[in-house]
Amino acid sequence: MSSISQIKHVLVVVDGAEHSLTAVDQALAYAGMHEAALTIVVVTENLAFAAAADAMAFAQAITVSEDQRDEHLAAVRERTRNTAIEVEVHSVFEASGLIPGLVKAEGQYADIALIPGVGRWQRDGLRRRISEALLFTGVPTVILPASWNPGPIDHAVLGWNASLESFRAARALLNLAEPDARIDVAIVDDPGVESGEHRGGVQIARLFARHGHSGGVCPISSSGKDTSAVLQNYAVEQKADVLVIGGYGRSRALEFVLGGVTRELIDHQRLPIVFVH
Length: 277
Fold this sequence. Notes:
Layout: E1 9-14, H1 21-34, E2 37-45, H2 55-79, E3 87-94, H3 99-107, E4 112-116, H4 124-135, E5 141-144, E6 153-159, H5 164-176, E7 177-188, H6 201-210, E8 214-220, H7 227-237, E9 242-246, H8 252-258, H9 261-267, E10 273-276
């Protein structure tokens, strides 16, 4: 790991249930690698709001919710005992609809946010909404597969389409990648392949080279497959450490029309995926 890491404050968001605790371990290792402070936000849905019309049901629901919050906080705090880095653990305990906005506010003060991926939450809908909310902070947000072992980024694949989000992702990658890293600029179904223009891919690859990185432009044919799957398959085949992509935050209807590349990548991870909005 470079001694001049730009990562000084890491945020990880979990629900604190048993299947989320490996993400706490991953976050501890990642923050330790960067000698960064770590904030762990443990989110718990307050079920009492759904039972507000019935006083007895409300009381029972709030007791159950509070007990779960306390249990999950205790489990996460136990997981962080005796760590050598600065760690803060606190709870977000609210109605499910309010939690993503509160987490978004937390993300605004971090250098990078980590989110455990599919299968590591009690309720997957909450995971998805939190992931989408963090995209709007502008902080690089990493969706973590359970198999990830934190390490330096020596090889990254950048999904490129010359959009503003792609430029932001490229800039973020300059801060995340190790010196002399290999960065492949992957362009799916690029109309500039025959002319050699690559929709700006050559210029961004040249910028990486000027910063001391190797790699180049890698045009890829989708062959009719989803762009999200094509990018992930390419990154996995190339044994990249991460896939980096400009995340699109749009309305649900428009995202559906566009094919939902961002949403598909949020919902399916074969390697760590870094989103930058």
